[in-house]
Design goal:
alpha/beta; Rossmann fold; Arc Repressor Mutant, subunit A; 6-stranded mixed β-sheet; two-stranded antiparallel sheet; Helix-turn-helix domain-containing protein
Length: about 300
């Protein structure tokens, strides 16, 4: 059974810790907590008991550094354990200010990363060799996973579950936690992806993963069905039952939302149509009246 170890410091944010811990616990992982002393106090005043030494770790195990308030940082002893675990092939992750610890351990140089929007400038200044990605929920780069902070730690953990056990298991965990949807890291504002991911059909999730990343391209039903290993008729039936849309309508919804985003930032309708995968603006104009994108947030 996979072990998830949370490396803690004083003033740790409770949700940074509790959100991912709840996800991994619900998914059946073992949890452990480590710090430089037997007890740390959260930023919200709750004491948290922890061991001083990390347990033995395998390559399938995960070390997570939740964020904290203030200038506290992990000790060099714990930073060294982070480095060794990653060098041995393991995964390390951070939530919010926890990215600073990954940077101090030398794990962000040459990699994409993110953190809470209030801390992005500081992270970029501290670690100029890193590529700080803004306006995303989480990033994944060579077994280093970073999230934007607070509730996005849940998204990070669900992503790990989806990667290791399939999107259906991640969706099941999300439903057990009463989390409305599994949000994708690189597309925090793509509301169609959120609205139509609240199901447990693994075949449909696989097809949605393909459409989500290639929605501007022609995606004939035959290609989608082959990707899922089912017939076109079966895929249409499963997809419609799970999402309320056909695969084509789902792709159109993503295209329209992308075009709306571009138009909202000053792009002409014609240019937005082309960049979103439409042959011309006429189809976009027709579809804009059918799809009502949900405002971000």
């Amino acid at each position: 059974m996979t072990l998830v170890v949370f490396a803690l410091v004083d003033n740790v944010h409770l949700l940074d810790l509790a959100g991912p811990a709840q996800v991994f616990d619900t998914a059946g992982y073992r949890l452990a907590y480590v710090a430089d002393r037997p007890q740390v106090t959260s930023a919200q005043g709750l004491p948290v008991v922890a061991a001083r030494e990390l347990p033995a770790l395998g390559v399938d195990d995960l070390v997570v550094v939740p964020g904290w308030r203030g200038e506290t940082d992990l000790s060099e002893r714990l930073l060294a354990r982070l480095r060794r675990h990653h060098e041995a092939g393991g995964v390390v992750a951070s939530v919010c200010a926890g990215a600073r610890a990954l940077g101090a351990a030398g794990l962000l140089d040459g990699r994409r990363c993110t953190t809470h929007h209030d801390l992005q400038d500081d992270l970029a200044r501290r670690h100029p060799g890193a590529t700080v990605v803004r306006d995303v929920l989480f990033t994944v780069d060579d077994r280093v996973i970073t999230s934007a902070g607070i509730a996005s730690g849940v998204d990070l953990a669900l992503h790990v579950v989806a990667t290791r056990h399939g999107p259906a298991r991640a969706a099941q965990v999300a439903r057990e936690m009463v989390v409305y949807a599994r949000r994708n890291g690189a597309e925090p504002q793509a509301s169609a992806m959120l609205r139509h991911r609240n199901h447990l059909d693994d075949t449909v999730h696989q097809v949605q993963d393909l459409i989500d990343t290639r929605f501007t391209e022609p995606l004939p039903l035959s290609r989608l069905a082959a990707h899922a290993g089912v017939s076109e008729r079966t895929l249409t039936r499963l997809f419609t039952r799970a999402t309320g849309l056909t695969p084509l309508r789902y792709q159109q919804a993503l295209r329209v939302e992308h075009a709306e985003h571009l138009i909202g930032h000053g792009t002409t309708v014609e240019a937005a149509a082309r960049e979103s995968g439409f042959d011309d603006a006429r189809m976009l104009r027709r579809l804009r009246s059918r799809f009502r994108p949900v405002p971000p947030g």
